[in-house]
Design goal:
Helix content is 69%, strand content 0%. The radius of gyration is 15 Å and the shape is globular. The chain is built from six helices and no strands. With 163 residues, the chain is mostly helical.
């Protein structure tokens, strides 16, 4: 993945949103943490991986991918909050859960850990765990990037429309 391009795009979107809503001087870190957790829940809901009581199938792949990249937006935005965008290597040794359900739970825990530490290492671990979730869901880095680019445009358009 071209992390620098993703961070640059996210920075532009964040600056636009913060300017539109007069939030330039606000500390948005905890709001972004909560937004990531909510997006993670929305993604889990679309995959239906935890709904053992239901026979209904997961949402279409396209919908799941769109929900997945919503999480990428907030992970990038959190990295910007902590000024991690200049890092050149985001690889990290991570613990990988075998099931999608367990990977979701791991990401919830890693997000909470990162919220407290705000460390680069915990950020890298969170980011890589999220990317691993994407792999578990069958997404390749190229299509994830393209979906991010597409959703970034949609997010700008939504801001113009008063979303």
């Amino acid at each position: 993945m071209n992390y620098q391009k993703l961070f640059t795009m996210q920075k532009g979107l964040d600056q636009h949103i913060e300017s539109q809503h007069q939030l330039e001087k606000e500390d948005l870190f905890d709001r972004k943490i909560l937004a990531l957790l909510v997006e993670l829940g929305e993604l889990a809901n679309e995959t239906r991986c935890f709904k053992f009581w239901s026979l209904k199938q997961a949402s279409e792949r396209k919908i799941i991918l769109e929900e997945y990249v919503d999480g990428i937006h907030f992970i990038l935005s959190l990295g910007l909050e902590c000024e991690f965008e200049r890092e050149e290597d985001y690889r990290a040794n991570i613990q990988k859960a075998e099931s999608v359900n367990d990977q979701f739970l791991l990401i919830y825990a890693l997000t909470s850990k990162f919220r407290v530490s705000k460390s680069l290492q915990d950020y890298k671990i969170l980011f890589q765990a999220y990317l691993h979730l994407g792999e578990q869901l069958g997404f390749h880095s190229e299509e994830t990037e393209q979906a991010y680019f597409d959703k970034n445009e949609v997010n700008y358009q939504r801001q113009q429309e008063g979303y």
